[in-house]
Amino acid sequence: MCKGMEVKICLIGMGNVGTCFLQLLKEKQDNIRVNFNFNCKLVAIFEYDGALIDNDGIDLDNLLDDITNLRKNQYWISNVKAQDLISTLDIDICIETTPTNPNTGEPALTHIKEALNNKIDVISSNKAPFYLHYKKIQDLAEKMNCLVKFEATVASCVPAISIKKSLIGNTISRIRAILNGTNNYILSRMTTEGISFSVALKEAQELGYAETDPTLDISGYDAAGKLVILSNELLGWSKSIEDVKIKGITKITPHALELAKIDDYVIKHLAIAEENNLIVEPRLVKRDSLLNIQGTLNLIELQTKYAGSIILIGKGAGGFEAASAILNDLISIVKKRRGF
Ligand SMILES: NC(=O)c1ccc[n+]([C@@H]2O[C@H](COP(=O)([O-])OP(=O)(O)OC[C@H]3O[C@@H](n4cnc5c(N)ncnc54)[C@H](OP(=O)(O)O)[C@@H]3O)[C@@H](O)[C@H]2O)c1
User: Fold this and answer.
1) If you take atom 8 of ligand 1, which residue's CA is the nearest one?
2) What is the pLDDT of residues 57-75, one digit of tens each?
3) Which CATH architecture does the domain made up of 163-315 adopt?
4) Mind spelling out the 3-state secondary structure of 145-164?
């Protein structure tokens, strides 16, 4: 696996994140060759309605010139599914960027398991398989001697998961985080403009920050899923989403925000992992606290035993942001396979 100069990969789901990843790969391939001494050969792309498979390597220039070229390519096969063909591919790494069902983790969960069962390392941008079945996936990866990486699932390109490597000599005792940019945008606007929750939500939808159906965000479920992944990775826990006490932001009123202001507080939607408990809920935070970030940003504060608080802040969404996290995962898998 990943031993030679050539690393063979497949991509499942060529939507926003998948396409950005291919563009980034194209842009960075010379740099990867020079700095990390390997070439990436894209052998297969799976979409919901078929696959493009070329064992000689798919021509990225031609494909990305016009992504409708995918289904016009001579090697396009209609009506096949990734889970049926993964076992037939000669690949090192499977990159999974399909949309997921938040309650089942499918189809990503099946793709991940199928790849691992065939001794293929996995990179995924899908949260649900990991907040639902973290331990099962890790156990399977271990059994198959495979690596699974999922940096893009939490705060996208912010190195929320890989920071663990940089803190290996320290001990993380608590996580406090703002993990949903939509909710942070809504609360920021309610605080600064005095507008209601529904007006702020509508504004977020018009700007493309909130989905047409924002339930997963405003209920706190999305942040809870990310908190599970973070606490399992950084604190060594083994939790799933049922372990999180979740409260959303729908009941926060302009009046409550005004009351908070009197004592110089704001209300933030925090995700907290502390003393074996996982909580996502609105909390009072001092106005001058570093937790009081604005707009759609994400924040992760790690309380450490030997260095106090360490804070990461950055964009928690976006195609290229997630794609760059995937590329990081890819390079780190190759490095690890080569013993670095
Ligand atoms: N966008 C972000 O900023 C971001 C950041 C971090 C993580 N993520 C996560 O990354 C994943 C992908 O996000 P995205 O924004 O790229 O979504 P997207 O634009 O909807 O792309 C998903 C792609 O997967 C295809 N697909 C659907 N079912 C499939 C199947 N069974 N097999 C193969 N392909 C299938 C879709 O085809 P059709 O559209 O034709 O159905 C689409 O092309 C999601 O889980 C998301 O939560 C996204």
Assistant:
1) 125
2) 999 999 999 888 899 999 9
3) 2-Layer Sandwich (3.30)
4) CCCEECHHHCCCCCCCCCHH
